[in-house]
Structure formats: structure tokens, C-alpha cells
Amino acid sequence: MPRPISLEISPHALQHNLEVVRQQLAQRAQQPGVSLPKVWAVVKANAYGHGIESAVPAFDAADGLAMLDLNEAIRCRELGWQKPILMLEGFFEPADLAVFDEYRLSSVLHCTEQLDMLAATRLKRPINAWLKVNAGMNRLGFSPAEFPTAWRQAQRLIQNQCLYRVGKMAHFSMADSDEAATLDQQHRFMEVTRGIPGPVSLCNSAATLSPAIWSTVKTEHNQWVRPGVCLYGGSPFVEQSADGLGLLPAQTLKAKLLSVRTLAVGETVGYGNTFVVDKPMRMGVVACGYADGYPRLTGNGTPVVVAGKTTQLIGRVSMDMLAVDITHIPAARPGSDVVLWGHGGPSIDAIAAKAQTIGYELMVNVSPRVPRKVLPSSYS
User: Fold this and answer.
1) 258 in the same domain as 206
2) In this structure, what CATH number is given to the domain that contains residue 304?
3) Could you tell me if residue 241 is inside a domain?
4) Is 44 a catalytic residue?
């Protein structure tokens, strides 16, 4: 039989989370002068580890999909997606433009080299693009000083029928934790793009759900937002839980107990003897380790649910196993169900915090050796 571990994917949760985002945006649109934004559902990194095949039908209500990988974009089209697809890093070499042409992909333009490649390439039909401003993230995008020249070059590409329509976009670096810094980056963007027509895509991730950001976009009537981790049931905020936002976990990592043993006072558990038993204990060994994607940096006290009861991890996580305290769970025995994170267990963000990382990393790092199971859409 296969090893007793699996990753369950819930299309229902994906649909629900998109609806939560849309409801939040509808509330923002009630402000005077604010129209209902359109939604790019971000499905990069194989839909944050949830699978493109699961995400595309679940996000049918989105206005477009956004991603990085051309092969994933092709898969979306082959699955029947007819709405816009935005490539967040654009194209990488002139040969890529044939794929953009054939599969009707929109491109982020973030450097002069991309503009030059477009100018030197003959396309069957012009493509849509979004010119990116570096408003302070200092990753991709034209600086405020460079942007006017880039915009003029993009207008020439429209005249030469390389581009069809050009929007403006930026990426916030601290929307999850620093409202003032985010508003400052938004101000920089608005200053450099003032008077320039076209759709706008400012709000990535946390900014999509930030009331403070939406209070300042009243003059923009063609906004596109780019929600990411919240669509998958993770919180985009540092100090606000996914549950508090009304989100459902779309990914559940489950396993079973392999063995149960009784430990005496003074015995140790796992590599490095980092856990010492201070009272008689029943210990369970779980069929999950860091080779499955469970973070090794978690340690004593990390929450785990065994046989429906909350307990904690003890000792170090090893490659294929981890240990839990089941002293207070008398029903636990070999074969008992264990939820490492997700539906019926601790939140993925809680586990990430114990590992000194973020839920995004856990979502995308579940090992390929862990079998995936896509649940019925009615699952909740």
C-alpha cells in the first residue's frame, strides 16, 4: 500500500476564497468614485502548489489569471480558459513572443530590453501589456525617472501594432504590515503616472484587502487587483488570521500514526536529543517529515491534530517522520489520522510561524512524493 500521507486540495475552498475577495472589493466599491475592481487570480507556482488543473475551474469567476511560467499559461488555455492571462515577468527572449501571440497572453513590461525585443519582432496581432513602475520594491519595473521614456516607447509600439493596449502597474513591498510605507509607494506611483490613461493594477496580495489603500483610489475607474495567497486560504497579513478574514484552507496535509510507544522520565526523542521527557508520556510517530515538505525548523510545541485532538510536536523533524505527544489522546493508535495543517487541523500560517517563515513557502514546498487528492467541489 502507499505510504500513509496525502495532500488534499479543496476546489470549494478556492471558490469560497475568491468570493470573499470579491465581496470585500464590492464593499470598497460602495465608496463615492470607486468602481468595482477586476480580479487577476494569481496562479503562479502551479497555483501555489494546489495544481493548475484544480485552480482554473475553481477561479472561473475571476476576470483573468496571472502567472509566470509559459507552460502553465498554455495549460490554462488547454483547460479551456478564455479570459485574459497576464504573465507577471513578461517574456524572457524574442522566441517567447510567438507563444504570447498564439495563446493570447498579456505581458508585464518591466525593462527596456523587453521593449526593444517587441520593437524587433513581427507579431500576427498586437498584445496587451502592463508597464511596471518600481515604486519602492526595487525588484522589477521602471524607476519613476525612467517611466516617462518607457511609456513613450510603448506608445510607439502601439502605433507600430506591436502592442494593443498598455496599462500601468506596481507592486507593494509592505502591504501586509506597514500602511504608511504602502501609501507612500502608492503616492509615488500616482505621481509618475498622473495624466497617463489606461487601466491600473496596483494591489497585490494584502493590498487587495486593505481598506486604507482603497480609501485613496477614488479617481481610478479601471482597477485590476492581484490576490494571491488569500485565494488559497493563507492570510496575507502579519497580524490577522485567515480564519478572521473568512478564508478557508484549500490545502490540507494529512498523515497517519506509524507507531505508539510509552516513554519514561529522562528519555529523549529524535535527533540531537532536543526533547527530554519530564513525565511519563505516550508518544506517536507520524508518517511525515521534511522530505514531504513539512518544515524542519519547527520544533517542540508546534500544533498537530491527532485523532481529532490538538497536541504538539516533540523533538526534531526528521526526513520521513516526526513525533507527537499523545498522552492525553488515549484513542490514538497506529493508523490514527493526523492533520499537519489545513481543514480540521492547525492553520498553515501557524505552522509557518513556528518555522520562522510564511505560509506561501509551505504551500509551494509540499514534496512531489506526497500523493495529491482533489476533493469534490462541495467539500467545506
Assistant:
1) no
2) 2.40.37.10
3) no
4) yes
